[in-house]
Design goal:
The structure holds 2 protein chains of 2 kinds. Chain A is about 5% helix and about 55% strand. By secondary structure, chain A is mainly beta. Classes of the chains: A mainly beta, B alpha/beta.
């Protein structure tokens, strides 16, 4: 069992700081925090892919405690994984103080020492972030300074090492970023309909040299760049109902396990255009990513130590079958387009009826980039025609119609179509073509009692194959009934069943209680990993088979 | 031993500090939908109550909450002077979709982006939706996570109480 306590004296000092510096402020300070406890008592089930758990009980726990006194704040986070829940890396095994920081947030200056999270622009060159449900914490341990010398100007500088489970990665990450809002700094533009913000950032990582043999031949080694730089520029333009966001990033030579140690430089472009007015909006996104995996340790292939973040531009679906094949960005190279239209048919019209009707249309297509191979590791890797697309990775289209039928009934119907290429999850195979239908009916019986019904169907041309063992294949049906007594209590029962060409029967019953910022939930059954929205909240859940419990509270 | 000292320091702070309602954290940077940076100290409603709701475009219960309140928002404003501030925790993946989402739904709320989730962390938000009521003095007087139809009535009661306190 690992226990991390070496930072405790530092913490005590850190917490004592407000007493020393601002003694009269003690009574004005506040302690807040949140606690989370998740556990599962799981038994193995090869059919749904739940692993055998010799210790029977798996548990993740976490507590954040935050002390705030005026502009000063300090916090620490305790984490315990005894043992880590399914879906979490076994390197999390252990317990201790995972994160700690002290920060000053003034009008013109903010300084954080310790663990911090930061993002430059949309994060294409730097994003230190966490997702507690996915077990990702890329926080930087170091120093982060933000200056706001005049209104409309923000300057950031940081340096640190990235968290790697219970340790820190070997690489040092350093970055600077500046952003200017022209409407704030140019007086004549203050009231203008034309709003303009521009920014630029630069990030450099340093990593000591190491021996990486060339094409596996130990007689030769690669000459590795010890410092790798990445820069990005961005603009956010708004004019009345129109808005445009653009960001371009470029990265120097960065041979790593992610790009199989090639020396090609990387780049990425993201464009986003929106027209919107009350009751109508249209949004178009485009992106091209080429060799942009940027990690602070060149030999790390897992989910940790990413310095940057290249988001998927596909819609994040919430219904079970629509989100069964989530698309993950291929940081090594992809091109994508996404379009989204929302329209509200007005009340008291033929199609709108008494309450109006909401229509939501979305589509996305993602492909690989064109590549012409030059060589393997130690070479520039490949050349690429910027405008030419590669293989189809993913495409989807969905239409959602939501309508309030009466003061008590609300119906949402969704149709979705998806094409999924298993290559994005690293295995060969035919494309999956899926049709999905969802009906979601909410019945507000009275002020305190609410029933919700959900029915889903997925028809797919994929068939379950033991050798590939993709448990999502085949045709599925699903039903869910959820009963809420005020926002305090809920019970939900659901079942997902593969009725043709697939395997699996995921039945689940959940009971929950909410009071203020406290939530307790118990579940029994088989659970697929993914985004789960029941009992009035949404969260990511791991795969499980058996009893699960979850407690969260904020204070 | 160190552990004991640390816990004592904590207990001391906790006892002294928890006597009062927590206030909104100041000087955390969030972004308006036109890209302008805004400090959380600017979240004010002239001494009247304020609802702060953390949400995301992909969160169905959040959308149900904000759509439900939309139907009664004007009445609430007339009755209590309340203002609803919606803080989107969408990350780079969907942050660009927040503005079209808000307009497409016809929401009249003040909406900000908390992409780096600094505000979310400072407010100890774990799951969305998570809704706070702030009284006229800027104190957090109520919070709740989760939404189902009908629970907006409970929220209104809290807002009314906060408005009445302020009027005294």
């Amino acid at each position: 069992m690992k226990t991390k306590q070496k930072h405790l004296p530092l913490l005590a000092l850190l917490l004592a700081t407000p007493f020393l510096g601002n003694a009269q402020g003690i009574l004005g300070g506040h302690v807040t925090g949140n606690i989370q406890l998740d556990g599962q008592i799981s038994h193995a089930d090869s059919v749904i892919g739940a692993a055998d758990v010799p210790e029977k009980l798996l548990m993740n726990a976490r507590a954040d405690i935050l002390y705030t006194n005026g502009n000063f704040s300090a916090g620490l986070r305790f984490e315990a994984y005894q043992n880590p829940m399914l879906g979490f890396n076994s390197k999390y095994q252990g317990q201790g103080i995972a994160n700690y920081f002290a920060a000053y947030n003034g009008d013109k200056l903010s300084v954080t020492m310790g663990n911090f999270y930061e993002q430059f622009g949309s994060g294409m060159i730097l994003r230190a972030y966490e997702d507690r449900y996915l077990g990702v914490d890329n926080s930087l341990l170091g120093l982060n300074v933000t200056l706001r010398p005049i209104e409309g100007v923000t300057l950031k500088a940081l340096a640190g090492k990235q968290r790697y489970y219970w340790e820190y990665g070997n690489g040092i990450v350093r970055g600077i970023d500046g952003e200017v809002n022209f409407n704030s700094i140019i007086k004549s533009m203050a009231e203008s309909k034309f709003r303009l913000t521009m920014g630029a950032g630069f990030v450099s990582k340093y990593e000591p040299d190491q021996t990486i043999s060339y094409t596996g031949n130990s007689a030769f080694r690669l000459k590795l760049p010890l410092n790798v730089g990445a820069g990005a520029i961005r603009a956010d333009i708004n004019y009345g109902n129109w808005s445009l966001q653009a960001e371009y990033a470029h990265k120097g030579q960065d041979p790593s396990i992610m790009n199989e140690f090639i020396y090609r430089e990387g780049d990425a472009l993201m464009l986003n255009a929106t027209y919107s007015q009350k009751g109508f909006s249209a949004n178009l996104q485009a992106k091209r990513v080429d060799n942009m995996s940027f990690k602070s340790v060149r030999t790390e292939s897992g989910e940790m130590l990413y310095i940057n973040y290249i988001p998927a531009i596909t819609k994040q679906h919430t219904y079970a079958f629509l989100s069964m094949y989530p698309y993950a960005t291929q940081t090594t190279g992809e091109m994508g387009l996404q379009a989204d239209v929302m329209y509200k048919i007005k009340k008291e019209t033929l199609l709108g009826g008494k309450y109006g009707t909401d229509i939501h249309l979305n589509g996305a297509i993602i492909t690989g980039i064109d590549t012409n191979r030059i060589g393997g590791d130690g070479t520039l890797g490949y050349t690429s025609d910027w405008f030419k697309t590669g293989d189809l990775y993913y495409a989807d289209a969905s239409l959602e119609v939501a309508k309030k039928l009466s003061s008590k009934l609300k119906l949402t119907c969704t149709y979705g179509y998806q094409i999924f290429n298993p290559i994005v999850e690293g295995h060969e195979g035919n494309l999956h073509h899926n049709h999905i239908l969802v009906g979601d009916l909410t019945w507000k019986i009275d002020k305190k009692n609410v029933l919700r019904f959900e029915a889903e169907w997925m028809g797919s041309d994929s068939k379950y194959d033991k050798n590939i063992d993709d448990k999502r294949c085949g045709d599925w049906i699903m039903g869910l009934v959820e009963y809420n007594f005020t926002s305090a209590w809920f019970v939900s029962v659901s079942d997902q069943y593969a009725y043709r060409d697939g395997v699996g029967n995921y039945y689940n019953i959940s009971v929950g209680y909410n009071h203020g910022a406290t939530r307790l939930q118990l579940g029994y059954g088989k659970q697929r990993e993914g985004l789960l929205c029941i009992g009035g909240v949404c969260r990511q859940v791991p795969a499980s088979n058996g009893l699960t419990f979850s407690l969260t509270t904020s204070f | 031993m160190k552990k004991i000292v640390l816990s004592m320091v904590f207990m001391a702070i906790a006892t002294l500090a928890m006597a009062q309602n927590a206030t909104l954290p100041q000087n955390i940077t969030i972004k308006a939908l036109d890209g302008t940076s805004v400090q959380t100290s600017a979240l004010q409603n002239d001494g009247k109550p304020m609802i702060i709701s953390f949400w995301a475009t992909w969160c169905k219960p959040c959308n149900r909450e904000l759509n439900t309140i939309k139907e009664v928002y004007e009445e609430w404003q007339e009755e209590t002077g309340v203002k609803l501030v919606a803080i989107s925790i969408d990350d780079a993946r969907s942050a660009n979709r927040v503005k079209p989402h808000v307009d497409g739904n016809g929401w009249e709320y003040e909406v900000y982006l908390d992409q780096n989730q600094d505000f979310k962390r400072a407010m100890n938000v774990v799951n969305v939706p998570h809704t706070f009521v702030i009284n006229g003095k800027g104190e957090i007087v109520w919070q709740h996570t989760s939404f189902v139809e009908g629970s907006e009535e409970e929220l209104l009661e809290v807002v009314k109480k906060a408005a009445a306190e302020t009027a005294e």
